[in-house]
Design brief:
The structure holds two protein chains of two kinds.
Chain A lengths: L8 H9 L5 H19 L2 E3 L2 H16 L11 E5 L26 H8 L3 E6 L33 H8 L5 E6 L5 H7 L2 E4 L19 E6 L2 H11 L17 H7 L6 E5 L9 H16 L3 E5 L7 H16 L20 H12 L2 H14 L5 H24 L2 E5 L15 H5 L6 H6 L3 E8 L6 E7 L5 H19 L15
Parallel strand pairs in A: 2-3, 2-4, 7-8, 7-9
Antiparallel strand pairs in A: 1-3, 4-6, 5-6, 5-10, 9-11, 10-11
Helix pairs in contact in A: 2-3, 7-8, 8-16, 10-12, 10-13
Chain B lengths: L5 H10 L6 H18 L34 H5 L5 E2 L2 E2 L10
Antiparallel strand pairs in B: 1-2
Helix pairs in contact in B: 1-2
Classes of the chains: A alpha/beta, B mainly alpha.
Chain lengths: ~500, ~100
Amino acid sequence: MSELIGKGAAELGELIASGETSAEEVAAAHLDRIHAVDAEVHAFLHVDREGVLAQARGIDERRAAGEELGPLAGVPVAHKDVFTTKDMPTTAGSKILEGWRPPYDATVTARLRAAGMVILGKTNMDEFAMGSSTENSAFGPSRNPWDLTRIPGGSSGGSSAAVAAYEAPLGTGTDTGGSIRQPAAVTGLVGMKPTYGGASRYGMIAFASSLDTPGPFARNVLDAALMQAAFSGHDPMDSTSIDAPVPPVVEAARRADVNGLRVGVVKEFAGEGYQPGVLNRFNETVELLESLGAKVVEVSCPHFTYAMPAYYLIAPSECSSNLARFDAMRFGLRVGDDGTRSAEEIMALTRAEGFGPEVKRRIMLGTYALSSGYYDAYYGKSQQVRTLIMRDFEAAFEQVDVLISPTTPTTAFPIGERADDPMAMYLADLCTIPANLSGNPAISVPCGLADEDGLPVGVQIMAPVLADDRVYRVGAALEKALEDRWGGPLLAKAPKLEAGE
Amino acid sequence: MSAITRAEVAHLARLSRLALGEDELDHLAAQLDQIISAVARVQEVAAEDIPPTSHALPLTNVYRADENRPSLTPEQALAAAPAAEQQRFRVPRILDEEA
């Protein structure tokens, strides 16, 4: 394994900028790592070796020509297959889009390219980002590098698996109900859901438009901040993109202190259903924050326990509308067009064959929640719960600067354990959903290994809207103190993957 | 009492344009019943005087400048079409045979 593998994004960017190595060498080292381990990990759906090397050579040529490039120029990234890429297929983990080559780049894709980043390939995901394990991918699950029989989280589980297996120093994800933070927690990574609207959704295949948020995966807090800064900011192509400066996330990640900061522990996120090892690591983290000079208090957010039922009405409702575009007419799969069937029959046949079970469940649940006679009782009530959750956040942030909780109630569960039990699967998002409903920024950082199974545990830090810098500041302070205690990053404790062919 | 009947699930499948088999409908009916019973908890909390929130950001009427911008060529737009003819998407008949 090349010594370039395992280095963080900021360090790789500096090594490339100083000429100690080149973007091409860094890309080649990561392509070799993918070749060696991805048959087992299955993080990627698409890797085009020659295309990647050509991207990297292009960066080296621009630098040789004297162009000023940013801190991530030449750094490879594993890109979630939900973002459109005009030079690579884009499937969103679905058979209905198998082989689709989008005619345009997503804004996030375009900004990664503008930052000089090298897109290694497209990563696996739960179909249309619906799931917490990647088991809903039409192309088979990804595996957790800590234990290949377990899930890497989801929906952005291909990216979390890739970064945790050292196949890439950075990964992109999207977070609708926890799809960045939960996979980061169960693979021992940093995963950030920025403020809703902080980065553009243009070209990001829609699941639930009022919740979908792009964000970064990294092996350290500073690297995540660097990539968030690179792809964020106003985009006129997305009407919900915020027209305001990107919060100073990189400075905050470098500042890394919590002295005098008021930290609120969410009272509702503990107790039954939480694995003891998760709660032990979380409670130690709370004590650590106090020892670092933070003022910790317990805060009650009484409506957070209703976030999950509200989410599983709001998100399916929005998805039932968004996924109506997969109608077999203009792009994607078309089944049964034998000259005798009507467009409506072909739509229904195509959608039945092209969508997997979870997507069908959610489309039907959303259709139900929005149908006349049920709208007020389900969708309407959920929107009221959403208001109450936002009020809980507002009241809490009058008392404290940040809120913390475990990221997810358990460590990575075995592949197959919850695959046909939707309600059990939905519990993985219990603590992450409130920040989606209210649009707040929230990060997950590793806080240790659970006693029972030796698997990673994450702590979630939430801040007010547009205070993304604050969660980075706390995350970086925790990371520094914990790594001093551990003698290095948590991921160094992961078992080494056998390089195979 | 179940929250949703098998007949309602079959109706939802038609509304959702999903041609599902009998086995798939049976399986989904049981799962949807379980999920709807669980999410119905939202009805416990929200009182009449709480305004609904559809979106986290208080944005209204966001417009771009009305300017010509580069767009896809017909070839690019049709490149992923299941069927195309004379620079158009070729689609199945849209009316039923009886119509």
